[in-house]
């Protein structure tokens, strides 16, 4: 938490340009403030990369084929079902 406060103090002090008298100054200040806060957040709590790949080591290609076959068989059953089946 102290690191965040230190970053905020060192990066936000240069932005203090009061008073802001025109709409343009307010817009510029707001843009700079948002960018600075975003930079601080990215440095303190960076987004983690999403791991792509298999989440479970036991899931493999043959299971994908079996699942697809099962789904197709169920679709066929629903489309062609009668009172007998």
Question: What can you tell me about this protein's structure?
Answer:
The chain is 62% helix and 0% strand. The chain has 85 residues and is mostly helical. It has a domain at 2-44.
Short account of what is shown:
Helices cover 62% and strands 0% of the residues.
Provide key terms for this protein:
85 residues; mainly alpha; 0% strand; 3 helices
Work out the number of β strands. 0
* Low-pLDDT segments: none
Q: How much helical structure, as a percent, in the residues?
A: 55-70%
* Count of DSSP-assigned helices: 3
* Computed structural class: mainly alpha
Average residue pLDDT? 83
Beta-strand proportion: under 5%
Q: Order of SSEs, N→C?
A: HHH
Span of the ends, CA to CA:
65 Å
Shape: elongated
Largest beta-sheet details: none
Q: Compute the CA-based radius of gyration.
A: 29 Å
Write the layout of secondary structure elements.
Blueprint: H1 2-12, H2 23-44, H3 61-80
Helix pairs in contact: 1-2
